Amino acid sequence: MMKQKHLLGLEHFPADDLAKIIETSFSFKEILDRPIKKVPSLQGKTIVNLFFENSTRTRISFELAQKRLSADTVNFSASSSSLKKGESFKDTVQNIEAMKIDAVVMRHPSPGSSLHLTKYIDSVVINAGDGTHEHPTQAILDMTSLKERFGKIEGLKIGIIGDIAHSRVARSNIYGLNKMGAEVMVCGPPTLVPYDIQSLGVQITHNLDEILDWADAINVLRIQLERMDRGLFPSVREYRNLFGITNERLQKHNKEIVIMHPGPMNRGVEIDSAAADGKSAIILDQVLNGVASRMAILYLFLGGNQNES
């Protein structure tokens, strides 16, 4: 069991619980390699996936994790709900909880929405992304992937490249990696790197070659093309020239750098296909580890029976 009832973010999450989730993820990864990929650990538990934003990987990953644990899963889509008829957020979630559920996995465009949800319901709340605030389960699967590749997290040098300012993935990774003893450096255009990000215990550079020279692994963030109209960088071509991960650029550094990406990728912008599909990339490992780590999270927060897994 976890020290906290909910998984809302990693900023104040206990480091030993974080380590426990990562270790438990490897147990569930073994289950995913079996011919029958299902265990009865959460049989009888009901979990609602409450998504107020579009999602492919995260939603499918959570749904698969729930089904692999034999939980009953209900998917809620805000676009086809009573919210469209004027029902309040509070009434919607309290009506859902009245149906005797055990947990809610929620993605919402507003920062702090998961914390807000805990004031209205007694069920376990798992944050699947709240605006630009945090995305804790993505950071956990990223750290699980790093532990799998390197055998450790402590002492690793991890670079995060891209739109740091608007990235909930970057924020949760910074909190989590710091707790687990890694060093973190962020890199991007000055307009996309908050000036006060150093207060979170990271180094800053605006030079891609500097971070590639330093890092054991890099996490390449999606450039959100919808932000282009705000003039945060001059053009996609210029961004690619200065910060795009290409094989040519990687080969200049004469060492292996493990490449990660939370998806979805803009191939040819923040990362080229040759780099994304190369032997140093663990992007597809991240996807599978996403299912395993979310199984571990649900299992530990909902008190699954370890003997059954």
Overview of this protein structure:
The protein has 2 domains: 15-134 and 288-308, Rossmann fold (3-Layer(aba) Sandwich), CATH 3.40.50.1370; 136-286, Rossmann fold, CATH 3.40.50. Mean pLDDT is 93; it is low at 305-309. It is 37% helix and 15% strand. The longest helix has 19 residues, at 283-301. It starts with 14 loop residues before the first helix and ends in an 8-residue tail after the last helix. It has helices spanning 15-32, 57-68, 89-97, 113-118, 136-150, 168-179, 208-214, 236-243, 247-251, 273-276, 283-301; strands spanning 46-51, 72-77, 103-108, 124-130, 157-161, 183-187, 203-205, 217-220, 258-260.
Globally, the shape reads globular
Identify low-pLDDT runs.
Answer: 305-309
Distance linking N and C termini: 15 Å
Largest sheet: 5 strands, parallel
For the record, the CATH architecture of the largest domain stands as 3-Layer(aba) Sandwich
Strand and helix order: HEHEHEHEHEHEEHEHHEHH
CATH superfamily membership of the largest domain, which one? Aspartate/ornithine carbamoyltransferase
- Text of the CATH class of the largest domain: Alpha Beta
Tell me the number of strands: 9
- H/I helix tally: 11
Structural class: alpha/beta
The strands making up the biggest β-sheet line up spatially as: 7-6-5-8-9
User: What is the beta-strand fraction?
Assistant: 5-15%
Q: Roughly how many Å is the radius of gyration?
A: 19 Å
CATH overall fold name of the largest domain: Rossmann fold
Helix content: 25-40%
Determine the mean pLDDT.
Answer: 93
What is the count of distinct domains?
2
